[in-house]
Design goal:
- The chain has 292 residues and is mainly α.
- The radius of gyration is 18 Å and the shape is globular.
- Helix content is 66%, strand content 0%.
- Mean pLDDT is 92; it is low at 11-20.
- Residues 1-24 are annotated as: Disordered.
Length: 292
């Protein structure tokens, strides 16, 4: 299960060899991996800077709306629909070809994420089911939408080629992940967000839209965890900017389960958040100049 997997890694990185008991807060132990504290600190400082921008005093709603649009565009790009921002802004119909539906799903998920913050800490599995329903948008077999896949059901996620866990393992690890979220953790939001994101990509629990759902869940954790309460730091922008190859390579590190690999994935996600901050700083500057 995800809980056991994270706890096992936490034990392997525990600085005290005399302790053989699993940590009561394994996510917090992951925060002590080499380079993770520095990554978290860098993200926090960047976020503080954009929140301190003078434009945020009066026009934060506009920055939030623009961050949502750009975040959705970035998430869709990673799922194979790499559209120009202005094309995403211009379109009103996303019901046509597969790329259009991917962009539409990303936009719906970004809008929905902010409505699910209060539910996430009590029932993360319910939130994940809702996210998949929103992403599917009524397209596909109703019997498979909004629930984890069953044995023998296919998964459409071309970007991730890692071995696919079987349905029984998926169910157990989802329960473990949910248990960690409900129990709470002292780990910083960027660490929890990276683990949630990585686990969902590793499991690919649904028949489709797993990448979009994983990035929406990351967004929920970053907002609900207090790092980005106004949703102006779209990590999806940074993931897209770093590129699909770097995204997959960092995920491979997470999937390896080694301390180095997991730390590299957390740092990669942290860098994505920083790049999202940079995007919103640019939006603030444009609004200040009257160019947006």
């Amino acid at each position: 299960m995800a809980g056991r997997r994270v706890a096992s890694l936490a034990m392997s990185t525990n600085a005290s060899p005399a302790s053989s008991a699993p940590s009561a807060d394994p996510l917090a132990v992951l925060a002590s991996l080499p380079g993770v504290a520095e990554s978290v600190d860098s993200v926090r400082k960047a976020t503080d800077r954009v929140y301190g921008h003078r434009v945020m005093r009066r026009r934060s709603g506009e920055v939030t709306a623009e961050a949502a649009l750009r975040g959705a565009r970035g998430s869709a790009a990673l799922s194979g629909a790499d559209w120009a921002l202005e094309e995403v802004r211009r379109r009103t119909d996303f019901s046509g070809d597969p790329e259009s539906r991917t962009v539409g799903a990303a936009l719906r998920l970004t809008a929905e994420a902010g409505q699910l913050l209060s539910v996430w800490r009590q029932s993360p599995l319910r939130v994940l089911a809702r996210l998949h329903l929103v992403a599917a948008g009524g397209v596909g077999d109703d019997e498979t939408v909004g629930r984890p896949r069953l044995a023998g059901e296919p998964v459409r996620e071309p970007l991730i080629e890692a071995a696919l866990p079987d349905a029984e393992e998926v169910g157990g690890r989802l329960e473990g992940l949910a248990g960690l979220i409900v129990a709470g953790s002292s780990a910083p939001a960027p660490v929890i967000a990276a683990v949630v994101h990585g686990e969902l990509l590793a499991l690919r629990p649904f028949g489709s839209h797993n990448g979009l759902v994983a990035r929406a869940a990351e967004r929920i954790v970053l907002i609900g965890g207090g790092l980005d309460p106004k949703a102006i730091c779209p990590a999806e922008v940074g993931h897209a900017e770093q590129g699909r190859a770097a995204y997959v390579a960092a995920l491979d590190g997470y999937l390896s389960g080694t301390p180095e690999g997991v730390a590299a994935w957390i740092a990669h996600c942290g860098r994505a958040a920083e790049l999202g901050v940079r995007e919103s700083v640019a939006v603030c500057e444009a609004l200040q100049r009257g160019a947006a």
